[in-house]
Amino acid sequence: MGASPSVPQKSIHEFTVKDARGQDVDLSIYKGKVLLVVNVASKCGFTDSNYTQLTDLYNKYKDKGFEILAFPCNQFLKQEPGTSEDAQQFACTRYKAEYPIFQKVRVNGPNTAPVYRFLKASKCGIMGSGIKWNFTKFLVNKEGQVIGRYSPTTSPLSIEADIKKALEIK
Question: Which CATH number among 3.40.50.720, 3.30.420.40, 3.40.50.300, 3.40.30.10 corresponds to the domain 12-167?
Fold first, then answer.
């Protein structure tokens, strides 16, 4: 129990996901970039601080090979109740997010999005592979491997040193 099913993929770049409008996005377009993958929600107690800090990090490092991939998720107390486009509009309007907001996904259970099966199998959390709440963060290196996993209570700015290291910035 709690074990993540094995996944054949060796890199996040092998996945195709859907954007907020339902169009396919091949994640191989992010080869050579450091990624921070986050399950987001608009009505969570962590929303304001996380979105604010994610936008700050993105603006600081986007020209240095850094990208944030945000996946809205409604699995935790239904804190992302609208459509994927609603989630995108919320993040872009209220928090000036310029990074991609994808289609809503499930991060746990039998219908877990394949990209999240990969992330969880790559890096277990303190209590196993399951995602415990909104704003769990995965740091992915330029080759597409998960190099860090951070809890919802870990602020995005507190992992800036890890991002800089992955970007090879002194």
Answer: 3.40.30.10
Look at 1 and 56; give whichever has higher pLDDT: 56
Q: Which of 44, 73, 92, 124 is catalytic?
A: 44
Query: Considering only CA atoms, which of 163, 109, 110, 156 is closest in space to residue 135?
Result: 156
pTM: 0.92
Active site residue 73: no
CA distance 10 to 77: 32
Q: What is the mean pLDDT of residues 94-102?
A: 94
Question: Are the beta carbons of 159 and 150 closer than 8 angstroms?
Answer: yes
Burial class (CB in 10 A: 0-12, 13-18, 19+), 87: buried
